[in-house]
Amino acid sequence: MVAFLNDEPAPVMTFPAGERCLSVRDFSLAYGDKPALKALTLEVPRHRVTAFIGPSGCGKSTLLRSFNRLHDLNESAVHQGRIELEGRDIFARDLNVSELRRRVGMVFQSPNPFPMSIYENVAFGLRLERRLPKRKRDDIIEWALRSAALWDEVKDRLHRSAWQLSGGQQQRLVIARTLAVKPDVLLLDEPASALDPISTLKIEELIRNLKNELTLVLVTHNMQQAARVSDYTAFLQQGELVEYGPTDQVFTNPKRQRTENYITGRVI
Ligand SMILES: Nc1ncnc2c1ncn2[C@@H]1O[C@H](COP(=O)(O)OP(=O)(O)OP(=O)(O)O)[C@@H](O)[C@H]1O
């Protein structure tokens, strides 16, 4: 066993204030009396891809969903501690939760386009937000579909049903729909786990390219995927942050014995 590996609490990795997008301080969340996250402290850097990995039930999705307060919808969920988006407390009384969810968009495991055309899917969020002149709306829809690497495949059939697209195309459409309202952060919860290998590679390429536009946080069971697309990786176990660092370091030179056990397959 390598001497430096130990199970001390994870050292806090910090970023200069100008590079920090999300900041989690001593954050705990329980469903009723069952703790899911235990006093987590971590920072998510702006315009980077940060991956959350760890065994099933370790709290990855719970942490991701906390970033846009999806737990408000679950009466049994209680939290303590603080999360800031660009320096602002997301639990502040005067915070507008709809605006938070516009700024922090989310894409789930199974593609969920609405039963309407490709065009209407991307326009959906824009219609709710504000009345835009058609020309301007068309420009944003083209921009969002291009950003989601889907424009060339759908530009000649924008008014056909979104359900005619393949699963991978549907997931890129959902990403375009989320991008259309210009979020600052994109949360991705296992975005490729329902897709075939080629569609998965397209989503991964998209994730890498999108960091020019916004900050991405990815939950994945697939460690190769985390290694391929993320800049930073956080390893969680039983609601605790075990290790957080640059992805290369976490995968090739982990500082914690528990991380090494997980990435080498000794714990699943
Ligand atoms: N809505 C809920 N109500 C009650 N308990 C929940 C709820 N959602 C999650 N949990 C529990 O909280 C813990 C963390 O779950 P979470 O889904 O965040 O983990 P995860 O790491 O994302 O798991 P997986 O990889 O299986 O999706 C688990 O013990 C889970 O059973």
UniProtKB/TrEMBL annotation:
One of its GO terms (molecular function) is ATP binding. InterPro entries: AAA+_ATPase, ABC_transporter-like_ATP-bd, ABC_transporter-like_CS, P-loop_NTPase, PstB-like. Coiled coil: none annotated. It comes from the Bacteria. Keywords: ATP-binding, Nucleotide-binding, Phosphate transport, Transport. PROSITE patterns: ABC_TRANSPORTER_1 (PS00211), ABC_TRANSPORTER_2 (PS50893). It holds the Pfam family ABC_tran. It comes from Vreelandella malpeensis. Residues 22-263 form the ABC transporter domain. NCBIfam families: 3a0107s01c2 (TIGR00972). This is Phosphate ABC transporter ATP-binding protein.
